[in-house]
Design goal:
This protein is α/β, with parallel strands linked by helices. It has a domain of 188 residues: 3-Layer(aba) Sandwich (Rossmann fold), CATH 3.40.50.720. The chain has ten helices and twelve strands. The strands form four sheets. The chain has a six-stranded parallel sheet with strand order 2-1-3-4-5-10, with helices on both faces. The chain has a two-stranded parallel ribbon with strand order 6-9. Helix 6 packs across helix 10. The longest helix is centred in the N-terminal third of the chain and has 21 residues. It is globular, with a radius of gyration of 19 Å. The chain starts with 9 loop residues before the first strand and ends in an 8-residue tail after the last helix. Bound molecules: guanosine-5'-diphosphate-beta-L-fucopyranose (GFB). Guanosine-5'-diphosphate-beta-L-fucopyranose binds next to helix 3, helix 6 and strand 7.
Length: 319
Amino acid sequence: MPTSLPRNGRIFVSGHRGLVGSAIVRQLIQAGFSQILTATRSEMDLCDPAAVEAWFAENRPEYVLHVAGKVGGIHANATYPADFMVENLLIHATVLRSAWKHKVKKLLYLGSSCIYPRDCPQPIREEYLLTGPLESTNEAYALAKITGLKSCTYYRQQHGCNFISAMPTNLYGPNDNFDLEGSHVLPALVRKFHEAKLANNKQVSIWGTGKPMRELMHVDDLAAACVFLLENYEDALPINVGTGEDVTIAELAEIVRDAVYPQAELVFDTSKPDGTPRKLLDVSRIHALGWKHQIPLRDGVQSAYDWFVENYPSEASRV
Ligand code: GFB
């Protein structure tokens, strides 16, 4: 049943400086929310249970959008599995427990499309969770996020907490990570094509075979979905949030090339991993509730590139 949230409700957005958190803060401001609570890492270390507990006691949030997490692309996930597992376990354990203790009225937790089994049928329906083995390059992250989703279910079951969770597809947009070792594919491609253009270097290296398929959504669409779900979704079952459309990595690279450096040539580096062959979400449940994404991929790529040129803190970003 839809519950219009009071615009003066106290809403905490965890991870407000990141790709997702910053988009949600923009969305909440636009929707007229007047008491948006945020905390920097020095104000509250989300891995520290005592710090989180003290912050909740002092700030008394009524609603929580728990979107903080340690995230990264295929290389970072495969290289630092212990960090991805432990930090993400802590980040949800601390916040969910304090949200329960302080009687938060509703909490939204974010999973990820990479936590579904590697070889599950496509498009992926919500009930496929935990039906098969995970993709090895992000198993640690996936396991941590699965315990987050399950924790929401268990708090609901044991304590009657109104905790919901959503499964976003691969995201991109303002405040993305453009570090080539840690980033996801889209920001990496934006940066690589841009730097190749500046260096007048025609060849751009694309990791893997270019054959895997990815569904990419602009983070402003995800932010709109999160606020929509907070007001319109009450189920224990996680809900997929995506566009329902995917492209191959080679097609994505061509779209970025067209936006940034049309003269460039793609060179596939097959010494780098492909990861999951495909992870297209079935978005029929969120469509049935009345929500659909708005930003087409080509428009989103262009705006991501514009953002990069204006904001990326480097001499190299000035053309
Ligand atoms: O976005 P990405 O790093 O993560 O890689 P995943 C997607 C695909 O793009 C892989 C290829 O097949 C990469 O090999 N790719 C091509 C590149 N060029 C590049 C490049 O320059 N940089 C990067 N990073 N990739 C992540 C998970 O998987 O998905 C995380 O590891 C997370 O846990 C995220 O959940 C959503 O889509 O493979």
